[in-house]
Amino acid sequence: MFVYIIRRFLQTIPVLLGVIFVVFLIMKLVPGDPAVLIAGEGATEETIETIRNDLGLNDPLLVQYFSYLKDIVQGDFGESIRSNRPVFDEIMVRLPITMELALISILFSIVLGMIAGILSATKPNSIADITIMLLALIGVSFPSFWIGLMLIFYFSVQLQIFPVAGWDSWMHIVLPSITLGAMGAAIIARMTRSSMLDVIRQDYIRTARAKGLKNRVIIYKHGLKNAIIPVITVIGLQFGVLLGGAVITETVFAINGLGRLIVDSIYARDLPMIQGTVLTASVIFVIVNLIVDTLYRYFNKRIELD
Amino acid sequence: MLEQEDKILEVRQLQTHFFTDEGISKAVDGVDFVLHKGETLGIVGESGCGKSITSMSILRLIDSPPGKIVGGEVVFKGENLLSKSEATMRKIRGNEISMIFQEPMTSLNPVFSVGEQIAEVFRVHQNMGRKEAWKKAVEMLKLVGIPSPEERAKQEPHELSGGMRQRVMIAMALSCNPEILIADEPTTALDVTIQAQILELMKTLQNELGMGVIMITHDLGVVSETCDRVAVMYAGKVVEYATADDLFDQPKHPYTIGLMNSLPRMDIDQESLQAIPGNVPSPYNMPNGCRFAPRCPHAKGICHDAIPELRNTDDGSQVRCWMYTPEWEDHSDITKAGVK
């Protein structure tokens, strides 16, 4: 197990190098010359050339990549064009907020989705099952910004239970988490149901019943530990979707997280900031995948690396 | 014949039907048999004859819906299991009556160690603690002849061979020293050499522990090696019920005779094996008369008109066939119904 984690961890290194390369290319592929931008209007060709040399823009692409890589590893993501503050510092202010939102949302998705999925699977075609699957269908098909706006409309404006926007107390967390986690909950519920239904029909469940085990033990011990394997994969993928969804949710609820930082940077054409935020989101996704694979391996020891 | 007091299980007129969109499938339709202490009863028949459903019905493991036990009695130690509560049934399953299945590959849970799966039985039925149950599980693995049981117990099913897994299933089933072991095609999925080992193991353990065994199989070879008595099933009914010796010496029902003829034999020179012509009737659309009549070489009008009873014959066995009744001679080939 330990060896597996180490090997799996080493595998993330080439992935991260690739991600950094793509992020690096954003800068290169965007039209316009940064040297011209920095030099300002009316600068002479000589000045621009000097700036180019200073910034290393005349070096071969690979040399530039490695120097970028060196900066990244040292935590130097460059400076924001908008605020002139280091990109890394700004991200570190915003990241905890988004992580909190994402973790609470995914937790909400997992708990609600799995409970609903198991309920559905244990009583297939019952009224409870049909209701849950209908809600799940709504969850996957309705866009999150709409769900967010509707939640604000009913719970904040009409019923005045939760605040409309911001990020101060746990009350602020409720609606954004539901908004962001709704689709995940729906997808996890559907996956849990189909996986559980599949598992319940297996021979080893019949064996468990023939052993004289209680229904509860059969479902939650013998069934769930098998059924959870494909669900874990979905949870991992869902976390990636969640990071993307944070962009919308944070905008709807006016939360100053990473998602909003990305949106604002794009509007302001703040390239170093865009690079930094995209890179951060990618690194988080890679880490989450590492965790998911480790969990997957824990639940299914038949999996061998390669 | 065995004494009446030795009787540990009696199945009377068991009927298990499946209610599906296509109609009602009478998978088991009035099955009777008796199991005595220490005896091995074989239930033989083709796929789909209802032998597995019969065994599942005894422990009430039929999925409902679509299955339902609609009639009959399963009398275990003087009490009808079909009227017991689910909680009482749980205390019997895996404890007093246990079961092993055909597919050792899929019958063990892939995500738990085999030791854990055996230990669970001790924890549930004998209220043992984790450590004690684990120790007993290792002992059971040793009993079924698994080498280095301490290490094996920690392994998961995928790390074991098919024969090993079936040994684990047997260990699990015998943990609580059951009075009855139901073995549903226990060797069908195994290599021939492993089959012999597993049958040998079951025989030894049966002699040691003194339990009654119900051996469900389609393999007459297994029957001749292991069974004291045999119930031959066809299309949901027992058609012949005899001691294994009588069955092989003097098969009576035309279906049993057909089964025997379809076996390869060493003692006579055969050009080819004789198959029984025709197919098993659809469970949704059973013949009105004897269910074997459409395939039977001897069938007369009466066979197509009415279902014969399971009757005693002179040598103490039972057969469900018009040929062995007084009515047989009274009926000519052309009857009122005029079928075939």
UniProtKB/TrEMBL annotation, chain A:
| Keyword Transport applies | yes
Compartmental location: Cell membrane
- Presence of keyword Transmembrane: yes
ABC transmembrane type-1 domain residues are 95-296
For membrane topology, the record states: Multi-pass membrane protein
Q: Transmembrane region positions?
A: 12-30, 101-122, 134-157, 169-189, 227-253, 273-292
Keywords of the record, alphabetical order, are:
Cell membrane, Ion transport, Membrane, Nickel, Nickel transport, Transmembrane, Transmembrane helix, Transport
Any single Pfam family the record assigns to this protein: BPD_transp_1_N
InterPro entries annotated for this entry? BPD_transp_1_N, MetI-like, MetI-like_sf, Opp2B
What is annotated about its quaternary structure and interactions? The complex is composed of two ATP-binding proteins (NikD and NikE), two transmembrane proteins (NikB and NikC) and a solute-binding protein (NikA).
Give the protein family.
Answer: Belongs to the binding-protein-dependent transport system permease family. OppBC subfamily.
Instruction: Report what the protein is called.
Output: Nickel import system permease protein NikB
Automatic annotation (TrEMBL), chain B:
- Secretion signal span: none
Q: Which domain of life is it from?
A: Bacteria
Per its UniProt record, what Pfam families does this chain match? ABC_tran (PF00005), oligo_HPY (PF08352)
In the bilayer, the protein is annotated as: Peripheral membrane protein
Under the heading SUPFAM superfamilies, the entry gives: P-loop containing nucleoside triphosphate hydrolases (SSF52540)
Keywords (A to Z) from UniProt: ATP-binding, Cell membrane, Membrane, Nucleotide-binding, Transport
Q: InterPro entries per the record? A: AAA+_ATPase, ABC_Ni/Peptide_Import, ABC_transporter-like_ATP-bd, ABC_transporter-like_CS, Oligopep_ABC_C, P-loop_NTPase
User: Could you cite one Gene Ontology molecular function of this protein?
Assistant: ATP binding
Q: What Gene3D superfamilies does the entry give?
A: P-loop containing nucleotide triphosphate hydrolases (3.40.50.300)
- Hydrolase: present as a keyword of the record? no
List the subcellular locations.
Cell membrane
Q: Where is the ABC transporter domain?
A: 11-260
| Similarity comment: family membership | Belongs to the ABC transporter superfamily.
Q: What is this protein called?
A: Peptide/nickel transport system ATP-binding protein/oligopeptide transport system ATP-binding protein
Q: Which organism is it from?
A: Aquibacillus albus
